[in-house]
Amino acid sequence: MKDSFQYLYASIGTQFSWYLPDLTTHKLDFISTKDFDSNIQYVWAHPKKDIVYLALSDGGPGKKGSYHSILACSIDRNTGEPAILGPKQRVPYRPIHLSTDERGENLFTAYNNPSSLSVHKIEANGNIGDKRIQLSKEKAGIFGHQVRITPDGKTAILVCRGYDATDNTSEQPGCLKIFDLTYGELRETKTISPFGGLGFGARHLDFHPSGHCFYLAIERQSELHTFKNAEEGISDNPLFTTSTLSKPLQSGVRQANSAVHVHPSGKFVYVSNRTYPAAPKNGGEIPNGEDSIAVFEVDEISYEPSLIQSVDTLGSLPRTFSVHNSGEMLVAANSEAARKINFKGKVTSLPLSLVCYKIEENGRLTLKQQISFRDNNKLLFWAGFL
What we know:
This protein has 386 residues and is mainly β. It has strands spanning 8-12, 15-22, 27-35, 39-45, 51-57, 68-75, 82-84, 89-90, 95-100, 106-112, 115-122, 128-134, 144-149, 155-160, 175-182, 185-192, 202-207, 213-218, 223-230, 233-234, 240-243, 253-262, 268-277, 285-287, 292-298, 305-312, 316-323, 329-336, 338-341, 347-350, 352-359, 365-373, 380-385. The strands form eight sheets. Strands 4, 5, 6, 7 and 8 form a five-stranded antiparallel sheet that branches. Strand 10 (106-112) and strand 11 form a beta hairpin. The mean pLDDT is 92.
């Protein structure tokens, strides 16, 4: 589906809505909504068929839940409507991320509490087949958050975030668990954990289209790490470490980045930044910080990213965003309604929203549209072009 016409899909709780993107105005037109029986956690498209895979759970952030599943849906390219392909596959924990290999032969599911990874066979018709493997907790790091397959299809990477230190516990390290991938079977080859994984809150990665490197969002430290991806394997340490923030961290603010996407041209990288109160207060106001999309220009020889722009998302906690396969449009999803207080003490109420930007030829973003929602007690948990 990478080279086909795309719709923008977004999930709020159990609702899965889709929109038609206009690449002339760089805006979205609402089409329809379909309701599922559980909260939609993540969605991934089959690389060759008009099929998407949904991760579903009655859990959510801070809630394990008790019913978890993965599901295949076909997409009608004329209307954008998803249709359930076959029965749901029950999974043992809340699924946090999905991906496939480049051939569309295997579906990989990552879980974070407990951290784990499973592999299901994808049938010839795109439906989800039998489970091939369920990784034991002992081999899955701490707080898995994403699973990606290298472009050559030979390696699976489980991205594990770890945990911050608390008043009662020490920091738990993050890492990248690296597996050799052969016919859907996993063989652990190494664990990448710079500095023992401390200060390495890895969350999401995306590959440069050349395949020579990938960019890793380090959530808990608001950094972007560039790792070499070569024939001899993935580098043990990042080639470059870059802050995703445009200004120094302010007192009373906890920053965390989230999603990362490489522009189809390979010339730019985008990362979302989120603001939390360092110590939650009564009333729920979030202090002034960066809820933004950071824009990086990529050096064509070294692949080093350099921050060239930071764009406010006009909302709170842009957990996910997506770049259209044309490279001309970016849509960010502000995942939570919030009351934000700025440096002058003014409090502004911010709803859930989708925010549309035109991607200029120089990679910079220009605001075009904001679509707000009234479901302020729910989460806009995922959005993406499919």
